[in-house]
Amino acid sequence: MLVNNNFNKKTIAIAVTAALFNFASPTIAQEGDSANSEVEQIQVVGIRGALISAGSIKRDSSGVVDAITAEDIGKFPDTNLAESLQRIPGVSIDRSNNEGNQVTVRGFGPNFNMVTLNGRQMPRSSSLTSDGIPRSFNFRELSSDTVSAIQVTKTARADVDSGGMGATINIETARPFDYDGFKAFGSVKGIIDRSVETGDNITPEVSGVISNTFLDGKVGVLMALSHSERHSHTDRVGTEGWERNRGQNIDTGNIDNGTGSWWAPWTVDLDLMDTERTRQNAQFVLQFEPTDDLIATFDYTIQQFEQKSIMNRQGLWFDNPTGTPDANGTLVNPIEVTDELNFWAWQFLEQTEGDSFGINLEWQATDSLNFTLDFHDSTSKSNPDGINSEHRANLANGAFQLNDEGVMQGVATKLVDFTADFSGDIPSVSVDDSALPGGAYSVSNIIPDLFHTFGYEIDNTIQQARLAGNWVNNSNGPLIEVNFGIQNTEYQVDTRQFGTFAFVTTLNIDELGLEFEEVGDALSEFGDASSIYPFVPRYSANRFIELAQQQDLFFQVPPSLDGVTEETLAAFVSADFEFEIGEMPAYVNVGVRYEQTDVTAYSVLEKVQNLQYNHVEGIQQVFDGNPVAQTLKGDYNNILPNIDLKLDITDDLVGRFSYGKSITRSELDQLFPSTRIGQIRPGDQATASQGNPNLLPYESDNYDLSAEYYYGEASYASVGYFRKNVDNFIGEVTILSTLDDTNGNPLTDPSVNADPNLCPSDLVPDPNCYNRPDQPIINFELTIPTNLATAKVDGWEFNIQHVFGDSGFGAIANYTVVNSDAEYDVRKIDGNRALTGLSDSANLVGFYEKDDIMVRLAYNWRDKFLLQGGNEPTFTEEYGQLDANASYQINENFTVFIEGLNLTNATIRRHGRYAEQLIDAEQYGSRYNVGVRFKF
């Protein structure tokens, strides 16, 4: 068994009386059980059948529910679940490496949506620091081949897990009792990625499911396996961000932004990245029916995901730019004199492993009463080998003087001048390296600079036990049924964060194998990439670090340990009623959910003993070697009522009203009690961050009003208005604060009044360059998350789905408008409270399906949205992608197909406060899947 030994007695006791959502096992819905019948799966084949099934789920539900169902056994509409979800009104997605990975619903980003697998909360982890400590499920880690349906519940319900302020998304997978007797289905395909430059242009994806029932259908066994590989290439140009009021001799005469502030870029970068991704899924399910009244289900699910990337970057760094900002305050033509070009190398290794063991019992106690008992223990672990998952190294232009022993000493001489132009979609760069004999790209003019290692090891475990009951009223009266239950959820996250940053000036780069590659037609959709840089360096960051280790120049900062345990005890009850209002049938669901959550957060890390001035551009933290644990606790409780009203105005016209209260818990790393100091650069503002375990969850009052007109078997039109009033909005407060060393003395700046004959020094340690009491005290910008004000979000969803008779043609079109008073104000310098992910979105799908031929075109569009808030925001610009797929059914057992994604080679661009403040411009190219699908 894979059940954790630390599952406490309290949880075991509740597990005896615990169970899953009523909709988790739809195949045994009882007569008159409207809650289960809302999600009962209909065996359908083809696009039309899938639309009928999804439309029936939407029409019969008591709240606002949208669904996508499989078009045939083992045939989900898209190979990526997120890319299927984006077809639903109000749902948009985020992409990583041009694959859908997370979803935004009605303007609420991934952390505001609860994703469940067969009704169970699923953990997630990541080894990349850019992902933070994630709560939200990543859809790229799960194959779609065994998925039978996805339901998006946009309104709150008492019997649905809390956490989905935007929506609760339930993924339903196949069960052996879904089928009669023996079934086998699967697919074999080749993934053709046209972007590949290093690796295989065609990679395999294989999946299969075998299911059978025995003993007159009393026992069923199902096994599903999936293996997928993908190689890809990414071209990027961008910056390391923009900072306010940085530079010298800035001409502010043109600025007209109400504040007089200006923003300068840190860098101009050109990246070439090659990626290899492997995903493996497996699921084993055993079902048996020992009596006519009892069904038992045991399931075990495995997920493995690995992604390796090698990236090289040509860049430059604006340490002290000059120039004239435009009217917005953007320094569009920054100038830097006597500096250097930078030659970067990255290597990423992202590994996650997950498994889930579950038991589900459904017992029909009497004709009117049934119980569902469910328990699962699910784990996701990133970076299971416990190593640094990201390595970075840099080389730079420069020349050192040698001492009598031939050892480099002093500070590198910088002889390169450059300027950039940010007025277009991508910048152009002009470099003057005439002062360097042989030029900036001559290896004789390149020296080692620094290395950086970082990453996470995360162990995320969810143990959940649930008992749910359903009582059906078999007598006359408006009451149809009552649902009730209790649930205990223990959510535990333990993390180890790695990170080492050091300047290295004595490495022998002749052993790196440094070469320069011509840029070619990279970023052709944006313009001429050679106008940025003519070359990109090629060498290995891992090799750089190996050489540093061989020369005893490498060191590893001790990892910091952080963790959170959230234990939530919930109880719920709801009732369904049916009556008439003016001869119109009305259906009402009324419920309430109570939750008590206890939070324990801890941090274990060494304290800062000194600061060392180790480089002209860096100040190093020196730790005391004594890890200290800090633990803080918090708790909160919530009462979450809901009411859903459905009115059958006519046989074809349905009206709805819903009210419900929902919550979303804070991001996990916001709860860690530790204080962390950021990288310190001499002369720049020092920063630090601190967690807050007493954060309350976001709390929202949600209102929905909609009308749906079902005018054909697979045709309907709908319009809906929604409004969410959010309290306990979590934002960041920044204060100026001193931080103490291990002796209780405020940290001072070691770069001020340092001995010029001794400092800076990259020796570790070098007490001559430590901070001293006579140096100025550092005032850190300390950022702390806290519950701030309120926010309002409202919007409209328009949807039409039409099938043109028996012609085989059909179309789907939808459009979502989202507005909020929590939108980022770019003319406001600080104190912005803003929701990420708010944007309008639209879909247009056309299809033809007749006889053995199926063809579908799908276009998805998403408007500009805030990707990341804070003092300096990041916006993702509007994006549209065209996908297509076609298939031909050879016979009842075999179908051949081709799928095309991003056919128009759409590109992604992100910027800061204004469009000229480029953050990223990325180009991925199109890709195709060609294969055969089979079923027996």
Automatic annotation (TrEMBL):
Signal sequence, renumbered to the chain: 1-29
Basic and acidic residues: which segments have biased composition? 230-246
- Per UniProt, residues of the TonB-dependent receptor plug domain are 58-167
Which one Pfam family would you cite for this protein? TonB_dep_Rec_b-barrel
Instruction: Indicate the principal place this protein occupies in or around the cell.
Output: membrane
The TonB-dependent receptor-like beta-barrel domain, residue ranges = 452-903
The UniProt annotation puts the region (Disordered) at: 230-254
Q: Which domain of life is it from?
A: Bacteria
Keyword annotations of the record:
Cell outer membrane, Membrane, Receptor, Signal, TonB box
Q: Where in the cell is it found?
A: Cell outer membrane
| UniProt record similarity statement | Belongs to the TonB-dependent receptor family.
Question: Which named protein is this?
Answer: TonB-dependent receptor
Q: Which organism is it from?
A: Paraglaciecola agarilytica NO2
